[in-house]
Amino acid sequence: MKSKDYDYVIVGAGSAGCVLANRLSENPSLRVLVLEAGGSDRRFWVKVPVGYAVNYANPALNWGYHTDAEDTLNGRASYWPRGRVIGGCSSINAMAYVRGQAHDFDDWSAAGAAGWDWAAVRAAYARMETQSDRPQSGGPVWVQNLSDQMNPFSHHFLAAAREAGYRTLDDINQEQTEGLGFYRSNVRNGMRWSAADAFLRPALKRQNLTLEEHAHVVRLDFDGARASGLTYEQGGQTHRVVARKEVILSAGAINSPQLLQLSGLGPADLLKSQGIEVRQDLPQVGEGLQDHLAVSYQFRASQKTLNAILGRRTGRLAAGLRYILTRRGPLAVPVNQVGGFVRSHAAAAVPDVQLFCNPASYEVTPEGKIELDRDPGYLLSAQPCRPTSRGSVRIRTGHHMDAPAIRPNSLATEADRTAAIRASRILFALSQTSTLRSVTAGAKLPSLDTMDEAAMLDEFRNRASTVYHPTCTCRMGQGAQDSVIDARLKVHGVAGLRVVDASAFPNITSGNTNAPTMMLALRAADLILQDAG
Ligand SMILES: Cc1cc2nc3c(=O)[nH]c(=O)nc-3n(C[C@H](O)[C@H](O)[C@H](O)COP(=O)(O)OP(=O)(O)OC[C@H]3O[C@@H](n4cnc5c(N)ncnc54)[C@H](O)[C@@H]3O)c2cc1C
């Protein structure tokens, strides 16, 4: 067993871990180690934007979790992909760049995360981003406007949105977030621009930053009440590292609470039931899980969509050639092309549903493989922005290789069930616009046309799926009874330990979670460096 010393040891080279690795190693006198359970992200289908569908279920890049079956989803268990690769989920995600809405962060602050209100986080976003069409911006996260390459069918969706009374926007990430437009994406020169590309790779040139791949952290080590380091396995060997200043968990919303629980920090009853010595009773570790559920309906189109190209071998070959020669075209653009935030009813105080229109229809094989239809089609999708149900992540055994129990507790509240119906009604209204009707050959089953509200809810229970945004399982707040970490992301009652990743959100944000996670890590690094003096 070898043992080494670092100032900061970061667990996980995902969206948050990459940001921390970069910012903390800017000071050459600090020695920083990043431990990542996965391997290299230098793979063709990680870099090609459309490769999202290929990576979706690839066990070489993916923890491939499953939730417990849920009665509220008519007995279904859900597949929850999570990146196990350099870049974490930012290397396998759909690349949509969405900051979230102002009130999401004001609600963080109200929940006890003082200093995380919109005014504060907006400045961090601005510092982090370079907008491809606003060259005066200057951060490492490349946010590409790909509207010139989006499938032309998306324009029908935007016209239908206007017909239905929704505003269309040039950029849903600016001051005005209510409305629909082309999504911006983390794509640069036709390739995925992950957190590893933006933050980790440039920092690895520094002598004081070390990255260990295929290094699976087993548990944290303690010196009294202080986290002093950790133990990890790599290539069949066990190693220990000492963290002179801090251990920082950035293992994501499933694995960060799992590691805390395995290390004796969590709900005392749960730990005892798994034979784990209770180091600190922290009842909220793994609790408070929030995620977005989306329901999709597919349609056959009377106009060409992506199916005409990628649904056919000749089209795929032509698109592949174009991509190799120009880094442009259908392979260079993520599948989530157009959408945004809308209000589902007149009394909604804020936009409460996120919409997507993807210019493709598909079937999923029994093995979980996505196969595009040969004939043109498109998909409309809606997800309630701010679910109120909260679930949990709890270890099932004391062994680090055993997946924890994931119980999303979907649709547990009346508010969430109502939101599911309202989201479905928006899709029906859009499908009835004369614009979409004029380019639609018919609905693929199931069709909204014949559904009343009860049927819409039942269909949501039958088919709504995660959009892969688990958050809040080590959330920020004021004390151990309502949270796991404080507003400086320090674990309550434990010295030398922070959690910095999507698990730290007090509440889920309205939209996709990658941008808020990177923003959170950028601000966390400021706090860590301030505390280091
Ligand atoms: C299929 C998919 C599509 C998505 N699409 C979008 C999208 O289009 N836009 C968007 O904004 N968001 C999207 N998301 C969500 C977004 O990518 C995540 O919310 C975000 O990346 C989470 O970042 P994180 O740092 O919390 O965790 P992660 O990025 O998951 O990083 C955690 C890292 O820790 C490592 N790790 C875990 N346990 C250990 C251990 N014991 N030892 C060592 N290392 C460990 C993991 O391997 C991983 O690399 C998507 C996610 C998925 C899975």
Distance between the amino and carboxyl termini: 33 Å
Structural classification: alpha+beta
Strand coverage percent: 15-25%
CATH class: Alpha Beta
The main sheet comes to: 7 strands, mixed
Please describe what this structure looks like.
By secondary structure, the chain is an alpha+beta fold. It contains 15 helices and 27 strands. It is about 25% helix and about 25% strand. It has a single domain, classed as FAD/NAD(P)-binding domain (3-Layer(bba) Sandwich), CATH 3.50.50. The protein starts with a strand and ends with a helix. The longest helix has 19 residues. The protein binds flavin-adenine dinucleotide. The site of flavin-adenine dinucleotide (FAD) has 43 residues, from helix 1, strand 11, helix 8 and helix 15.
